[in-house]
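Field reference: "sequence" (input) and "structure" (output). Example, HB22 protein:
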Amino acid sequence: PPHSGVFQAFVKGECHFMNGNEQVRFVQRYFYNRKQLLHFDSDGGHYVGDTPFGEDSGGNWNSKPELLEDRRAQVDTFCRHNYEVSTLFLVDP
């Protein structure tokens, strides 16, 4: 039976690498009870709502230039940084 009163919220960050780390895309997805509410894609550079609630939240977050700048920078600070660190262990020398 379904569990009432149990909720799940999580954020998933993804790095997509093309041609090594020359072309990198950062995607951050926001979920609530297994449904994606909104996402950020570094290719577009802004939040996109996938539900009415996500559209409201995305519109609010898109009005904050410092937040968008931080998310866009994740391509370098999160993705490329971890690519450089991870290749030492994941790629055969």
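The helical segments are 52-62, 65-90.
Strands lie at 9-18, 23-32, 35-41, 46-49.
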